[in-house]
Write a structure and sequence with these properties.
- The chain is an alpha/beta fold and 380 residues long.
- It is built from 14 helices and nine strands.
- The strands form two sheets. It has a seven-stranded mixed β-sheet with strand order 4-3-2-5-6-9-7. Strands 1-8 form a two-stranded antiparallel ribbon.
- Strand 5, helix 6 (164-172) and strand 6 (180-186) form a beta-alpha-beta unit.
- Helix 6 runs parallel beside helix 8 (204-212).
- It is elongated.
- Residues 4-12, 27-56 and 297-318 have low confidence and may be disordered.
- Keywords: Methyltransferase, RNA-binding, rRNA processing, S-adenosyl-L-methionine, Transferase.
C-alpha cells in the first residue's frame, strides 16, 4: 500500500469512538478502491508482457524495423479508427508475431498478411491457429515492395520505417483500388507526410501523395509502447485515395516534382537555369517529341523543330545555340506564368500542375516514356 493511502488511514489515539468507527469504514472503502483498481493495471501489464514474449523468443532486428507494438489500447484504437466492415479484406504489411493481426481477424472477412521474415510467419500461424481464425488468414512470405498485392479493401499496418516512402507510393499509385490505409509511421516521417505548402517539412513525397490522396492525423504513439523500444516516437495516419485525380501523366508528374524539389527552397528560375539540368531536359524532350511523332505516323524530316536532332546525337550535343534556345524557352514559360521567382516549398499542387502543363505544351518534358520501370519507382 502506498504512503499516501497509509496517511489517509492513520487514527490518532485520542479519537472518539464514533470517529474511530467512521475511520474504519473509510479505510474499508479506500482499500477496496485501491485493490479493485490494481488488478486491471496488473492484467494490462501481464497482457503486454505476453504480447512482447512472442518477440522475445526471436531475435528482433532493429535495423529492419522489427519493433512489435504491444500496448493493447493503441492496438484496439487502430482497429477502431480503421472502420473495418465484416465484408472487408484487410491487407496487413509487416504483421510480425500477430499482435495487430489477432485484432483484425474477428472484425474482417479476411486478412492478407505480407511478412518477409519466415520466423515471424511461424509464430503468426501458431497464434492464429490457437485463436481459431486460421481460415480467415492468408500469409504471403515475400518482400512487400516486390510482390503484387491481391485485391483488398483496406490497409492496416505497422510498417517497417525503412520502407515507408516506397510502400506508401506503391499503395497510392498502385493498380489496386482501396478505401483507406491506416498506417503506424515514424513520427517525424508522418509530420512530413502531413505537411502543407509553406511548412518547413513540406517535401516531394507530400506533394506526390496529396495529388491522389488525402492524409489525416489520428494520434501519436510513444516509443515505450513497442518491444524492443525504438529510439523515436510514432504516429498513426489514415490515407484515403481521392475519388477524382487530376488528368496528368503520373510518371511525368513524378519526374517533374523530382526536378522541382531537388532544391525545394531555390527559386524555379535558379533551378531551370542550371546548364546540366537544361541539357538533361533538352535530350529527354527531343527524344520524347521524336517518339511522339513516330507514334502518330509523322516523318521527322518534314517537321520543323526549335532544335536539331542530328546535333543532339553528336558528341557535343546540346552545346551552343541549341542549348541556349531551349533554355530561353523554359525561362520564357516560367516568366509568362509568373513562376520564375516562386519556390517549390511554398507552391500548391494546382500551381505545379499548371506549370507542368505549360512546359509540356512548349515541348519540355521530364519523363522518358521508354523507361519501363514501374510507375511508383519515379515518385519517391
Amino acid at each position: 500500500m502506498n504512503s499516501h493511502l497509509k496517511s489517509r488511514l492513520y487514527i490518532s489515539p485520542g479519537s472518539p469512538p464514533f470517529h474511530f468507527l467512521r475511520a474504519i469504514v473509510q479505510s474499508f472503502h479506500l482499500c477496496h478502491r485501491y485493490y479493485a483498481a490494481k488488478p486491471h493495471y496488473d492484467n494490462d501489464r501481464r497482457f503486454r508482457r505476453k504480447e512482447a514474449s512472442e518477440g522475445e523468443l526471436l531475435h528482433l532486428h532493429k535495423s529492419k524495423g522489427q519493433h512489435l507494438l504491444t500496448n493493447p489500447r493503441i492496438l484496439d484504437t487502430i482497429v477502431r479508427k480503421s472502420a473495418i466492415k465484416p465484408t472487408d479484406t484487410v491487407l496487413e504489411i509487416g504483421p510480425g508475431t500477430g499482435n495487430l493481426t489477432l485484432r483484425l481477424l474477428p472484425v474482417a472477412r479476411k486478412v492478407v498478411a505480407v511478412e518477409l521474415d519466415r520466423r515471424m510467419v511461424e509464430v503468426l500461424h501458431k497464434r492464429v491457429a490457437e485463436s481459431g481464425f486460421q481460415d480467415s488468414l492468408s500469409v504471403i512470405c515475400q518482400d512487400a515492395l516486390k510482390v503484387d498485392f491481391p485485391p483488398f479493401d483496406l490497409v492496416v499496418a505497422n510498417i517497417p520505417y525503412g520502407i515507408s516512402s516506397p510502400l506508401i507510393i506503391k499503395l497510392v499509385y498502385g493498380e489496386n483500388p482501396f478505401q483507406s490505409a491506416t498506417l503506424l509511421l515514424q513520427k517525424e516521417f508522418a509530420r512530413r507526410l502531413l505537411a502543407n505548402p509553406g511548412d518547413s517539412e513540406f517535401n516531394r513525397l507530400a506533394v506526390n501523395v496529396k495529388l491522389v490522396a488525402d492524409v489525416e492525423f489520428v494520434m501519436d504513439v510513444s516509443k515505450r509502447d513497442f518491444h524492443p523500444c525504438p529510439k523515436v516516437d510514432s504516429s498513426v495516419v489514415i490515407i484515403r485515395p481521392k475519388p477524382e485525380v487530376p488528368e496528368v501523366n503520373l510518371a511525368e508528374w513524378c519526374s517533374f516534382t523530382k526536378t522541382c524539389f531537388g532544391k525545394k527552397n531555390k527559386t524555379l528560375g535558379a533551378t531551370f537555369k542550371q546548364k546540366k539540368k537544361v541539357l538533361e531536359l533538352l535530350e529527354l524532350s527531343t527524344r520524347t517529341v521524336s517518339d511522339s511523332r513516330n507514334d502518330e505516323g509523322y516523318e521527322n524530316d518534314d517537321e520543323e523543330s526549335d532544335y536539331d536532332e542530328e546535333e543532339m546525337e553528336s558528341p557535343g550535343c546540346g552545346s551552343g545555340t541549341t542549348l541556349g534556345l531551349f533554355k530561353e524557352k523554359i525561362i520564357g514559360v516560367l516568366r509568362s506564368g509568373g513562376f520564375e521567382d516562386k519556390r517549390p516549398v511554398k507552391m500548391k499542387n494546382e500551381e505545379l500542375l499548371e506549370l507542368l502543363s505549360l512546359l509540356n505544351q512548349s515541348g519540355v518534358f521530364f519523363h522518358n516514356q521508354a523507361d519501363d520501370r514501374q510507375l511508383h519507382s519515379f515518385c519517391y
